[in-house]
């Protein structure tokens, strides 16, 4: 008999149904030669410092740095029950092989291996590596299981990342807290995120607005304007020189084609929900997770039956992929897109298995189309409709616009006016209700080069430059997603880019608020004095997004067998020793 361990109960249920493990047991399913159980996220975690020595229970400068010769792990208190189930199964004599069916990625590998190791299991490992939960993908995955040892380097990479984060969190947090008698928390993702907010606030507070001018000419049916002019005297002279009429010197017309965006990953969903509905990143994640876990109100109370028949409204939301797998084409087109017109050229772009990592993009489930969405809470219904509309838009036809720019040059100055007309609304017809500003086409008259127009009015307009805007959750999530990417070397593929992951970024923001480093001011995120103080004192290494990029490149090399975990950790240990040493001199 084979034991299959998935990362989450919902995934275990889907797998069990496909492979015929239909009998519900205590913490697992059984049947057809399989037992299928699950983790509940990270069942095993790195032990706290006081597990190594009781003296570490108190934060003292003289005890730093804390760098164990071997690292300890412990069962998470909240998940002890499920670990006990897994430990018993892993050591059951009836089990011959153990199949790792956790998420196809670094963290999924780590979740399984830590449980396997903590249970002191020695049985043969196999690996199920799939990114889609379609029945056909699960069947294909089981037909192509790999030996677990094939992913040993990936686990080494996962261990290296976890230990490195532990070293930074436990040592640098204690260092600055002891030095400044303040409860500070430093993290590889958290602190660079805080630094971005502090730096933006600093740019705004130090911003000095600059006055500038434009000259505007009102003609028949349209107007022309100069670009920025810094000297007012120049504008006054220009108005006097331009006279009572002006000749058109250029007319530029161009067809602009805008292609639709891909379906949502979690970060883009959080960004757009913040922009359109004002939801925080955490609220959006909570709503999406709830939709993922929804059960039909029509379902029976029989637990076994309800687990198999549960009608999820959304696919798994904690994903960083914006594409769907190719095996989903038929079911999505036939059951979700339906009779709606779509651009066949978009199919190969949206359905691209090579661009799917642990999980595919977020879309409505097929069963959700049979549900009465009006019974959902309004907040969740908004998220669901946005995701459905985004999917339809992603395979829609391009937006086609005609853009026109009319130019009149005079005495070395350019007066111009721009406008556009929508020729084909394309994919935007699915997203009309989400426009944040009411935009109307700027219609310009048919004008020819050489035409002369009477100037009905001319005036100098006084304007000011604008400061940068405070981060909102929308703009901060985008900044986190791309932070440090410039430091990535070309040609190196890394598993994680930016600060955090789609699943953790909302928690990072909430944690910064909870710890008093930032606060919400309506939609804006503002650094507090405590947050500013921390960013001021912490060393550049531990507040730079480039550090994360450098780590990811090295972790990628470890996962690919090109680098050694111990060498990577030694560098971080030395950095910590040097940082602590600076304050001991």
Quick take:
By secondary structure, the chain is α+β, with helices and mostly antiparallel strands. It has helices spanning 9-19, 80-90, 106-118, 135-143, 152-180, 190-205, 232-242, 266-277, 281-293, 303-309, 329-337, 347-350, 378-394, 473-482, 505-514, 529-537, 545-559, 565-582; strands spanning 2-6, 23-24, 29-31, 34-38, 44-46, 73-75, 97-101, 124-127, 146-147, 211-218, 223-225, 245-247, 250-258, 399-410, 413-424, 452-454, 457-464, 471-472, 518-521, 524-527.
Question: In terms of topology, how is this protein built?
Answer:
Layout: E1 2-6, H1 9-19, E2 23-24, E3 29-31, E4 34-38, E5 44-46, E6 73-75, H2 80-90, E7 97-101, H3 106-118, E8 124-127, H4 135-143, E9 146-147, H5 152-180, H6 190-205, E10 211-218, E11 223-225, H7 232-242, E12 245-247, E13 250-258, H8 266-277, H9 281-293, H10 303-309, H11 329-337, H12 347-350, H13 378-394, E14 399-410, E15 413-424, E16 452-454, E17 457-464, E18 471-472, H14 473-482, H15 505-514, E19 518-521, E20 524-527, H16 529-537, H17 545-559, H18 565-582
Parallel strand pairs: 1-4, 1-7, 7-8
Antiparallel strand pairs: 2-3, 3-4, 5-6, 8-9, 10-11, 10-17, 12-16, 13-14, 14-15, 18-20, 19-20
Helix pairs in contact: 3-5, 5-17, 5-18, 6-16, 8-9, 8-14, 9-13
């Amino acid at each position: 008999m084979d034991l299959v361990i998935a990362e989450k109960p919902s995934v275990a249920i889907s797998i069990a149904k496909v492979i015929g493990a239909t009998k519900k047991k205590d913490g697992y399913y059984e049947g057809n030669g399989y037992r299928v159980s699950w983790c509940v996220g990270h069942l095993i975690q790195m032990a706290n410092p006081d597990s190594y020595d009781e003296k570490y229970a108190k934060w003292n400068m003289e005890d730093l740095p804390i760098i164990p010769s071997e690292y300890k792990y412990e069962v998470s208190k909240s998940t002890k029950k499920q670990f006990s189930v897994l430990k018993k199964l892993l050591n059951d004599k009836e089990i011959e092989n153990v199949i790792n069916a956790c998420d196809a990625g670094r963290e999924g590998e780590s979740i399984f291996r830590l449980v396997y190791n903590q249970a002191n299991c020695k049985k043969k490992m196999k690996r199920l590596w799939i990114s889609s939960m379609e029945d056909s993908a699960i069947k294909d995955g089981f037909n192509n299981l790999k030996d677990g040892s094939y992913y040993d380097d990936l686990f080494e990479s996962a261990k290296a990342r976890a230990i490195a984060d532990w070293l930074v969190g436990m040592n640098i947090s204690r260092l600055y807290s002891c030095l400044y008698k303040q409860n500070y928390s430093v993290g590889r993702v958290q602190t660079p995120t805080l630094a971005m907010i502090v730096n933006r606030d600093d740019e705004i507070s130090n911003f000095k607005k600059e006055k500038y001018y434009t000259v505007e000419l009102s003609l028949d049916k349209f107007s022309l304007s100069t670009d920025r002019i810094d000297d007012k005297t120049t504008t006054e002279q220009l108005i006097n020189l331009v006279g009572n009429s002006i000749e058109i010197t250029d007319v530029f017309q161009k067809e602009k084609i805008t292609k639709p965006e891909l379906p949502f990953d979690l970060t883009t969903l959080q960004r757009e929900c913040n922009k359109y509905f004002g939801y925080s990143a955490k609220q959006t994640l909570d709503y999406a997770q709830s939709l993922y876990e929804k059960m039909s109100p029509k379902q029976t109370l029989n637990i076994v039956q309800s687990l198999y028949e549960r009608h999820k409204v959304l696919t798994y939301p904690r994903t960083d992929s914006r594409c769907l797998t190719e095996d989903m084409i038929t079911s999505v087109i036939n059951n979700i897109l339906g009779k709606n017109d779509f651009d066949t050229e978009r199919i190969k772009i949206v359905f691209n298995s090579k661009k799917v990592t642990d999980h595919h993009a977020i879309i409505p489930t097929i069963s959700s189309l049979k549900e009465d969405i009006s019974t959902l809470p309004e907040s969740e219904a908004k998220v669901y409709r946005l995701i459905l509309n985004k999917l339809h838009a992603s395979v829609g036809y391009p937006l086609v616009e005609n853009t026109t720019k009319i130019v009149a040059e005079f005495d070395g100055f350019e007066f111009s006016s721009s406008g556009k007309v929508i020729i084909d609304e394309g994919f935007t017809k699915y997203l009309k209700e989400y426009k944040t500003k009411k935009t109307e086409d700027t219609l310009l008259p048919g004008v020819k080069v050489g035409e002369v127009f009477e100037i009905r009015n001319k005036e100098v307009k006084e304007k000011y430059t604008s400061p940068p805007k405070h981060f909102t959750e929308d703009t901060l999530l985008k900044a986190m997603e791309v932070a440090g990417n410039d430091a990535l070397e070309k040609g190196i593929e890394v598993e994680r880019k930016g600060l955090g992951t789609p699943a953790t970024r909302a928690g990072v923001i909430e944690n910064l608020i909870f710890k008093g480093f930032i606060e919400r001011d309506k939609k804006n995120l503002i650094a507090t004095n405590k947050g500013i103080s921390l960013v001021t004192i912490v060393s550049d290494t531990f507040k730079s997004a480039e550090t994360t990029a450098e780590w990811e490149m090295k972790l990628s090399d470890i996962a690919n067998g090109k680098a050694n975990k111990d060498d990577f950790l030694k560098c971080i240990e030395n950095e910590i020793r040097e940082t602590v040493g600076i304050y001991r001199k």
